[in-house]
Amino acid sequence: MTSLPQSPPATKLGLVIDLDTCVGCHACAVNCKEWNTGGHSAPLTDLEPYGESPLGVWFNRIHSFEAGDGAEGRTVNFPKSCLHCDEPACVTVCPTGASYKREEDGIVLVNPDTCIGCKLCSWACPYGAREYDYTDGVMKKCTLCVDRIYNENLEEVDRVPACVSTCPASARHFGDLGDPNSEVSQLVAERGGYDLMPEMEMQPVNKYLPPRPAKTSTGDTGAPAALPDHDIAPVEATGRGFLAWVDRTLSR
Amino acid sequence: MNPAYSVIFFTTASGAGYGLLTWLGVAVLFFDLPAHRWFGLAAFAVALTLITVGLLASTFHLGHPERAWRGLTQWRSSWLSREGVVAVATYIPAGLAAIGWVFLTNNDGIWAWLSAVAAVLAVVTVLCTAMIYQSLRAIPRWNTPWVMAGYLGLALASGALLFHFGVRTFGLGFAWSGWAAALLTIAAWAIKLAYWNSIDNAAPRATAETATGLGHLGKVRLFEAPHTGDNYLMREMGYKIARNHAKRLRTIALILGGAIPVVLAVVATQLPDVTAALVALLAVISAGAGLLVERWLFFAEAVHTISLYYGTDAA
Ligand code: SF4
Ligand code: SF4
């Protein structure tokens, strides 16, 4: 059923991505590929992996942008995956019911058994979060690791999306954005987390934390702007031996 | 958007087929078109063939054509599904009207009403097709009512040119249908010009700044793409066409699809049936070629917001 859930999901599982700390290492994308090529949407097919123009299914990609110029200019690493929108056009355009938004947690999924591979959902998503698998002939996408987060065979700490568990910079946070008291919601409130392209009216659940203000002077880093002056007393030329003789001779 | 030939062919061919069905209905209902057996056979055959071939072509680009029937289930939310449902439904009255016309040489009473229902469903199908594109916010240049007007206008105009060719071929008179086809063609291309004008002058709906939310830092430029190779998104939606290239193609579309058919249709009104039919056929062929160029451009010129993440400034 590609109509959206009757009552909007109260639980909105999603990611909060910190553009300040992301170092652009692509570890999340690699771990995403690793997990998902064996998970719910397996396999994530690669075409010509060792050929002239390799091409493959990835649910998470790390872009890099330059923003601003001069001293205020920044390079910002920018991971992007499905935002599990509240008003996802990718779901409502689907003619088959293969695409759906879960009422219990807001996760947007594709049923590979009923998808006809018309690709319309990938046209409808403004963010480029849907991936067509040329080999399987069906659409695939980020599942928010639905096969990890509820997986009782995993240790409790591992019940988070693969990208979150692997990020070495802790730039990815997972939680319930429908609960204003959750850690992720607090983080969003504190750091001014925002929606990508709100003008598209998809009401994305995932939020992005902006880079912190640029540190353009040494003072911004917490270090003193200049080292304090110390009066350094001249060494008295009173010693003995060869070095003292050199010193005395040179300072004459 | 990457212009996929299956979709270009589908929208133009089935559009013309539905246009022809519409004019058959209108002519039966309001202009007392005689139930000429061979004209009926030819007209319904052409209309239903164009529609069927178009629909089949559109299933070629599916990953799983054998599951295509599933596409009819989500008419509550999806324009693609609605289009499928109405397209299939149109066959019923159209097929029945064709039977009455061809086998019973009767297009009055109930048969006339079947033609009329087919005509209405044909128009609704074309509108649903247009809505598939128009409803996509992620492709701002399609997200305008000009799209619906354009699809309907061109379907009715190409259908009228076909109708005109038919009535002249079978010597049914109706020479004025040449004028009607010419006027409709002019109207359709006027809509197209207005569409082009609107997309050329529209303010961008989304920019690299809003796509990343980094606009407060200044101008946003792509520094590094996620990978050096290609990907599905760029193949399907990253197509870019040079501005002057597009301009030239617009002129070609306008001449082939608009100017030539209009002149030929008007000339045909002054000619005896046999030569008029030939001229009307040329008008149909030229219009078809123009439509293919126009539809190719419709896709090629549309910028998807995904390209904002791959180095485009505005969409
Ligand atoms: S990011 Fe795209 S694919 Fe994901 S829910 Fe939103 S519209 Fe759908
Ligand atoms: S590609 Fe599959 S999931 Fe996407 S709209 Fe078509 S049928 Fe639905």
Overall domain count of chain B: 2
Instruction: Write down the overall geometry of chain A.
Output: elongated
C-alpha termini separation of chain A: 95 Å
| Topology of chain A as a string of helices (H) and strands (E) | EHEEEEHEEHEEHHEHEH
Strand content of chain B: under 5%
Spatial sequence of strands, sheet with the most strands of chain A: 10-1-11
Rg of chain A over CA atoms, rounded to whole Å, is 27 Å
Share in helix of chain A: 10-25%
In helices, the fraction of residues of chain B equals 55-70%
Please count the helical segments of chain B. Answer: 10
CATH topology of chain A, anyone? Alpha-Beta Plaits
Associated small molecules: iron/sulfur cluster
Q: Which tags fit this structure?
A:
heterodimer; A: 252 residues; alpha+beta; 11 strands; elongated; B: mainly alpha; binds iron/sulfur cluster
Structural features, described:
- The complex is a heterodimer of chains A (252) and B (315).
- Chain A has 252 residues and is of the alpha+beta class.
- Chain A has one domain: Alpha-Beta Plaits.
- Helix content of chain A is 19%, strand content 18%.
- Chain A is built from seven helices and eleven strands.
- In chain A, strands 10-1-11 form a three-stranded mixed sheet. Chain A has a two-stranded antiparallel ribbon with strand order 2-3.
- In chain A, a hairpin with a 7-residue loop joins strand 2 (46-47) and strand 3.
- The longest helix of chain A is centred in the N-terminal third of the chain and has 10 residues, at 27-36.
- Chain A is elongated, with a radius of gyration of 27 Å.
- Chain B has helices at residues 5-31, 37-60, 79-103, 110-134, 146-169, 177-201, 208-212, 232-237, 243-269, 273-300; one strand at residues 220-224.
- The relative contact order of chain B is 0.14.
- Chain B is built from ten helices and one strand.
- The longest helix of chain B has 28 residues, at 273-300.
- In chain B, helix 1 packs antiparallel against helix 2, helix 1 crosses helix 5 (146-169) and helix 3 (79-103) packs antiparallel against helix 4 (110-134).
- Chain B is mainly α and 315 residues long.
- Chain B folds into two domains: 1-135, no CATH class; 144-315, no CATH class.
- The termini of chain B are close together.
- The interface between A and B is large, with 70 and 60 residues.
- Strand 4 (61-67) of chain A pairs antiparallel with strand 1 of chain B, so a sheet runs across the interface.
- Residues 93-94, 96, 98-99, 110, 115-121, 139 of chain A line the site of one iron/sulfur cluster (SF4).
